[in-house]
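Protein Record: Sequence and Backbone Structure Tokens
======================================================
Scope: a single protein chain, as residues and as a discrete description of its fold.
Tokens: labelled as protein backbone structure tokens, with as many entries as the chain has residues.
Position: the record begins directly beneath this header, with no further notes in between.
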Amino acid sequence: MSVNKEKIKIILGLKLKQARKEQKLSLAKLSKKSGLSISYLNEIEKGKKYPKPEKIHALSTALGLSFDELVSLKLEKSLSPLSTLIKSDVLNDLPLSFFGIDSKKLVNLLADAPTRVNAFISAILEIARGHELNKEHFYYSALRAYQELHLNYFEELEDSVASCLRTYGLSKKGVKSKELKKILYDHFKYNFEDLDLQKHKNLKSLRSVLKTGNKNTLYTNPTLQESQLRFILGREIAFNFLKIKERSYTFSHHIAKNFDEVLNNFKASYFSIALLINQDDLHQDLENLFGQETFNPLEIENLIHKYKVSPEMLLQRMTNILPKKMGLKNLFFLRFNNENQSDYYSLNKELHLNKRHNPHGNKIEEHYCRRWITIEVLEGLKKRQEEQKENSNIIMAQRSAFIDSENEYLCIAIARSMYPTPNANSSVTLGLLVNDKLKKKIAFLKDPKIITKSVNATCERCILTDCKERVAEASVVRNMNKDAAIEEEINQLLN
């Protein structure tokens, strides 16, 4: 679909199909009138063939159209939104083939019900414009769908990590940054330098920049913690060991050019975390943790120190292990950011396995529920920083019962400073659906110290009237109640 010729084929096919149906001609009748075979006409309509001029002339004569009308790239008004879709880069940008979807078949399917489908396309495009959605949103949504499809566990990447450990003689118990640097230097011609933050002040929030050439130079932020440096080096090994070419050269600021780049960055990150946290070791550690009858935040902190990783890396790795190794498939992962100690919290990363769980992101600037443990730990960290106390991680657990839903989740949340990013904090949360399987797996689920709270998605959508944590009125609920009252009175009047 990236070649202009392909789009021309599709448009001609749509025009031919539309003209034939308007004249109530079957493929057999058009074949007889034009002298072209049924199979050839079918190929044209599906956008697979573009006929020579003499055959287009035969078709135009058979349909009573001029040659120019038939080859024009302009579609009838009923198909105009579909025409916009074809001519735009949307079909290039969306990774349709990745999910086994043929873009030509999709266009033909859409064209079969032009009025309803084109109204739908117009609505989708309008929603996208209204909410400032761009192709990057589609890329990352597609990536999440890919992760969810595989329950976020990828055997081929796990096997590649095991092969990498064997190839370079690394211990599965953990590797140091100097070992990873040596591999990159010896095998992939890497040099290493610190980012000059005095000279490049706008790059303070970046973790790394790779300059390619005869010798690759990896510039890393000199303020990085050891866990952050190991993760970045692990990603670089992944790109090279997996022979990935389509990739970004910065971390973490990145504007995706295409879906392959987004997917490859995910693969490299998955590989790096799997390199640092052995799946079998973590599985055993989680069995031990879940076997305890009380929840102790220090046990989570000990795992962070054992594997020398960030809280986000640990919880991300748990989303790989829990579904595959322990059968806990109903889970979600959230990452919230909070900058400059403000009252605004942004949800910028999420994953839902097995179904769409209650706490998920929205793009409509509503206020996320302050009762969520993921917000509570951020507010606790912010208070600690304001009082100039220690800046260590805050780890808490909560049973979150969602209002207007039967769902309840065991949530483990960790708040931390986003160092070296200035004046920014982040919290990561792992949520596990409370069901019979979870009750059998996690002994500390019954720990009375784990508080159960009624929570909701946002203040605007919450029906609670006595919520002390509320920061915005329930405007969505109010409008829904108003609409319901109007509907009820209309029914009374008419009945």
